[in-house]
Amino acid sequence: QVQLVESGGGLVQPGGSLRLSCTASSSIFDGNIMAWYRQTPGSQREQIAGITVRGTTHYHDSVKGRFTISRDNAKKMIYLQMNYLSPADTGVYYCHGPGAWGQGTQVTVSS
């Protein structure tokens, strides 16, 4: 049973933008903190942004000021707006909720 599905990854030039989306099942989304994680080549998966039900957000230092996490509680979706992307942002991005992971979406930043 698929509970989290990401979309929106792709290839972008340095300085560009992408918006990731994640659709969640009610059992995962409702009333829970949701987050985006990233796994870059040769590194462990790490949380880069999180958001509470009421919209309180927190970010990894590496993305502060460039990435914005948001959620639509009615649609049961979370988003990650990524601006000023650099090659260091290249990796697989995962949506996460309690007990569940999405399949990941690849983001490649390259000229």
Describe the overall structure.
- There is one protein chain.
- This protein has 111 residues and is mainly beta.
- The chain contains 1 helix and 11 strands.
- It has one helix at 26-29; strands spanning 4-7, 10-12, 18-24, 34-39, 46-51, 57-59, 67-72, 77-82, 91-97, 100-101, 105-109.
- The strands form 2 sheets. Strands 2, 4, 5, 6, 9, 10 and 11 form a 7-stranded mixed β-sheet that branches.
- It is globular.
- The mean pLDDT is 95.
Structure, briefly:
With 111 residues, this protein is mostly beta strands.
How many beta-strand runs?
11
Instruction: Count up the helices.
Output: 1
Radius of gyration: 13 Å
Mean pLDDT comes to 95
Low-pLDDT segments: none
- The helicity comes to under 10%
- Categorize the overall geometry: globular
Largest sheet: 7 strands, mixed
> How far is it from the N-terminal to the C-terminal residue, by CA?
38 Å
Supply the helix-strand structural class. mainly beta
| Topology as a string of helices (H) and strands (E) | EEEHEEEEEEEE
Hey, roughly how much beta strand do the residues contain? over 45%
List keywords for this structure.
111 residues; globular; 1 helix; mainly beta
Topology overview:
Elements (H helix, E strand, L loop, with lengths): L3 E4 L2 E3 L5 E7 L1 H4 L4 E6 L6 E6 L5 E3 L7 E6 L4 E6 L8 E7 L2 E2 L3 E5 L2
Parallel strand pairs: 2-11
Antiparallel strand pairs: 1-3, 3-8, 4-5, 4-9, 5-6, 7-8, 9-10, 9-11
